[in-house]
Amino acid sequence: MCNSCRSSLKADPQSPVGAGEAEFRKTLEDLKVNEGHAVLMRRKEEHDAVEKAGEWRKVPWYGTPYKVETVDDELVKTAAGASTIPDLHLPHPNELIPQNLDVEKRDVAKDAIKLAKAAKEIVDGIAVSGSDIVDLGRIVPPGSNYVWQSTVPNLNEANSSLSYYLHFGSYNDRHLRAASALVAQILAEPVDDLLSDGKFEFVQGKGYPEAAIELVPAVPPRYYE
């Protein structure tokens, strides 16, 4: 199967870098009166009022009348000449494009050292040993309760809800992934109790490393964190 698919594939030739201008100029050269055709769509009566000569044909599918005429030689000659339309002109050079592209190099090693010293003096940090880092990582922050009171956004909509968005951090952090999964499980456990108490209709949209929870209240929306 792979061999048959491989045999049918063909290499796609890559366009040379910077060929956009050449393609654009080639397209402009093809925009000639004698290389194309114009379509005028009107009612037959309106066309007859302007040009009565010629024989009208009909499209075999819909019976729409149409007429084909060649472009006048004088029009082709006029179109091939110099343009006299003042609105068609090349734009002026962009004055905002810099002409001096040489990069000015400067030694910033001393400035970086000064900045690091200034930051250290402002923060007034204290060096922490490796064992202290492990102990500090085990400290649990004190608990807190927050109360929000809000009205339902749309009283006329039965599924109107309050969106509660939690962002824990980077997905690449294994500790945060585990913590966010634990939070999602904690939020999912009391759903049945909330339903029995009539506080919320449902809780949905939990995930990690970030969780978006939608709460549809059955009573005035007042919930705790």
UniProtKB/TrEMBL annotation:
SUPFAM superfamilies: LuxS/MPP-like metallohydrolase. Residues 22-110 form the Peptidase M16 middle/third domain. GO terms for molecular function: metal ion binding. Keywords: Metal-binding. Transmembrane segments: none annotated. The keyword Metal-binding applies. Pfam families: Peptidase_M16_M. InterPro entries: Metalloenz_LuxS/M16 (IPR011249), Peptidase_M16 (IPR050626), Peptidase_M16_M (IPR032632). It comes from the Eukaryota. This is Peptidase M16 middle/third domain-containing protein. It comes from Hericium alpestre.
